[in-house]
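Title: Request for sanity check on Iron complex transport system substrate-binding protein prediction

Description:
We are preparing a figure and want to confirm that the structure record we downloaded matches what your pipeline produces today. Could someone re-run it with the sequence below and paste the raw structure tokens into this thread? We only need the token string, no images.
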Amino acid sequence: MHTWRSILAVATVGVLLAGCGGGTDEPETPAAAGPWSFKSGNGETVTAEKTPTRIIAHAGEAAALMSFGIKPVGIYADEPVKTDANLKNLDLTGITVLGEEWGKIDVEKAASLAPDLIVGDWWPVEKAYSGLEEGVDEKSKKLTELAPIVGVTQGESIADLAEGYEALAKSLGAKVDDPKIAENKQRYEKAVTAFKAATAAKPNLTAAGMSPTDEKVYVANPKYAPELLDFQRWGLMVMNPATPDADFPYWETLSWENADKYQPDLILWDGRAYKDTLNAEFGKKQPTWFEVKAAKAGAVVSWPAYWLHTYGDFATELEKLTTAINGADENIGS
């Protein structure tokens, strides 16, 4: 089974992902100490005599570690690092890029870096770490032969994911209470408070995570989208699709003839694939898109789908969403 990465890549050929990275100069990676251990997302505890320092990480996970001052020696991404939402604003000087396409990792080059730890999210549906799911090149999976692999679960909350990488960074020697690091966390907490206030002021506002493509319209299932679950907890009524795809429950797939099955007041547009400014252009290609009343009204805001890993990025995206909620009409979809 292919992952959501490969499915969306096929559905949106030629379109670069949109998003917002974050970070400038990062502190040096702390010196090694030991012994070291960390309970990974798959439930297993990985141990080492010394704290790992030569780390290879998947893109978003690398951004998370770098936000705490842990600089990996190598990264692998699912797209060009210049457009990756997690990486595009980071200084990658001195970091070896091992792949810029989902499922393709240069393991020989990775071996030359002599890593002592691999870091990638654990995906419970696929039961695999990022970039190592079913459907990737078999030779890419040999990355796990170079060093132990750990990561935080992509589960029910981005807040939990950020906290998990904070714990991993701390185990690797990061001073997570450093004032510069704490600033992003405080900004995130402030953004959550503002988001809750916005949703409380509009208790009847409905929203839906949607990813329109040339062939189909995908409606996100919050059960498998931790950002959307957070939004629901914080007061936004994000719709749960009635019939998620049986073989891939991240989405309910609609034909363009049925694009108007759901009528939210606000569309949360999949920000990995299209900027929300393309809403009008999509309506020209697929007129039935405008049968979704929110699309016709331009009530569309980018949803940071599946890529968030840091407090700073989450704060930025929450601020955008809060602005959209404050300006939204609760009666568009009715």
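Thanks, this matches our download. The chain has a mean pLDDT of 87.
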